Amino acid sequence: MAESPAPALALAVSAERFPIAGSFTISRGAKTEAVVVVASLHDGAVTGRGECVPYARYGESVESVSAAIERMRGPLAAGLDRAGLQQAMPAGAARNALDCAFWDLEAKRSGRRAWQLAGLAEPQPLTTAFTISLGEPAAMAAAAAAAAARPLLKIKLGGDETKGGDPSRIAAVRAAAPNATLVVDANEGWREERLAANLAACAAAGVVLVEQPLPEDRDDALLHLARPIPVCADESAHDRASLAALRNKYDAVNIKLDKAGGLTEALAMAEAAKQAGLTIMAGCMVATSLAMAPAVLLAQRARFTDLDGPLLLARDRSPGLHYAGSLVDPPEPALWG
Q: Could you read off the pLDDT of 227-255 as tens digits, one per residue?
């Protein structure tokens, strides 16, 4: 007997807003809420969900991402599956939402967990970084002191150079959190002429990793500079196709599902990065537990985990991931996968 075709998938798209506790500030600006786009796929029996964050840095908006997902309504009704999605859409937030919705749908259809479908070992709890937003040295020191018991802090730098600039900021943070492991994220905010001094200040503060110190289109300077600390690509790395350009510039890569275009590509990118000798960070945008849940599977392969998005919100969705301090548990099926 011929196998019956899979039922057509119905698509729903929604934008949701979640207030941030205080504000989230990086070198490109500040925001007080996280605006996410959720894609839902329904086959008549079960529903799979995926969440993404449109990233203005890459020309994305809530409207453009929602429209890109909506354009898949016809192909989905005609039988588009997760494998076909990889060619039907480019890497980015829109494909991430649909890719993760497919994983969730496949798990619910099969009665198996997403990690089993991916051929992964059962995921374990992970220690996530906790972000300290960019600000004046005293404000950053106060925030770091409040989070000093957390084992891993991610420090946003790339601010103006008054009052001692970023060297003063990182020194103030280290004094306020003497026992925490520190990583730094400059979000493309440093200039080449300040690169060596800023890296030296980070080294003096015991920072173990510096993310994206220079703009993506000006990071060739990293080819010619002795790096006292490993340097991690973020804005310079998207999917597997971007890895070759990182050679001899970067020691690590921050893989985010919104950049890679979903868990499918992110897992493949992690394997390719490992083969290229790059240390892996599993990162996130500021979003809810629905966006973090698939990234927890990716993070099982990472040296550094940065999945603190829900910890930065005034409220998360329910059910959400369980955080005990900085320890995050794998998702339960009611949330995702």
A: 999 999 999 999 999 999 999 999 999 99
